[in-house]
Amino acid sequence: xxxxxxxxxxxxxxxxxxxxxxxxxxxxxxxxxxxxxxxxxxxxxxxxxxxxxxxxxxxxxxxxxxxxxxxxxxxxxxxxxxxxxxxxxxxxxxxxxxxxxxxxxxxxxxxxxxxxxxxxxxxxxxxxxxxxxxxxxxxxx
Length: 141
What we know:
This protein is an alpha+beta fold. It has one domain: Ribosomal protein S6/Translation elongation factor EF1B (Alpha-Beta Plaits). It has helices at about 15-30, 70-80, 95-105, 135-140, and strands spanning about 1-10, 35-50, 55-65, 85-90. Strands 2-3-1-4 form a four-stranded antiparallel sheet, covered by helices on one side.
């Protein structure tokens, strides 16, 4: 079985019980098709990059699971016809070689599962050594 990650963007005005029903139905389908759920992580409401069906926000959920490849097609089809799902994307998780080696040694592999917390990106940029600059000395300041 292969590991997959499902990103669900649900309608923000859907009640919590309907959102949990969609996630519950999805996880039950994975288990019924011979897979297993690794992690379910709600990310909460976030602003969309562009409007989808007149919605500017969506309720994000991540489901990490292991499943046979044949079950993915039916899962995607059922999510496309679900009313409360704005967007869904199933991707295959490919672990780096080092992570596979660590997992074989018995270490936990929860580090590669994304969390819902925002992480600040540090942009180091290109550092220029002033001694190598061809600009005039007045332009360096």
